[in-house]
Design a protein that fits this description.
The chain is α/β, with parallel strands linked by helices. Helix content is about 35%, strand content about 25%. It has a six-stranded mixed beta sheet with strand order 7-8-9-4-10-11.
Length: about 250
Amino acid sequence: MLSIIRTEGLSKVYGGVEPIHALRPLDITVEPGEFVAIMGASGSGKSTLMNLIGCLDTPTAGSYRLDGAEVGGLTRDQRADLRNSKLGFVFQGFNLLPRTSALDNVLLPLLYDRAGRIPNPEERAVEALKRVGLSHRLDHEPNELSGGQQQRVAIARALINDPALVLADEPTGNLDTRTTMEVMTLFQALNEAGITLLMVTHERDVASYTRRVIELCDGRLVRDEPVRNQRTASADLAARYVEAEVG
């Protein structure tokens, strides 16, 4: 079985009078079905790594294979096609179009599906919203949805093209504790269903819901290990509801 992510000596240097080594030579592998957190302080290189894995930037050196496809050497258009066919993105700020229904927001990635891989796109979008528990909010615009519901729309959008990998960049950064648990419950359910997830987070509590943690410091890999005592978001959420009722 092909690895979803395989990097060898992947690095990024920003030029100038004093070159900035944003990412030192990095070797990582992510297999199908994993749920991985990328952690590190500001300036550690985690955003740079996310941009490289997301085919949004090109490395200075090294190689990167995404679901078996070598990314190095691809043109901008080829990277865009690969990104659209292999990746789903979830962002901290949701990145939904205002004055646009949940259904149409979810349909957006398919506007760039030049190969026509997805038949019956509207049907697929409805199914994606149903999967995240929003089948009753198809016609609602972002300003008619809570923060947690907006993030669910964003997750449905990430799933619409049946990606090999979902990349989530601080997906709970704008959410309160209870809504964070709700979103992580959804992520864990998607992972249990076989979806591979890679999530940037600075919150160790959030990382404890994943299966594996990769930690960076000054562009270097300093930790890569399974999560010990992985927490279950649905159980934490249920306990929080009990506390609220007792209180």
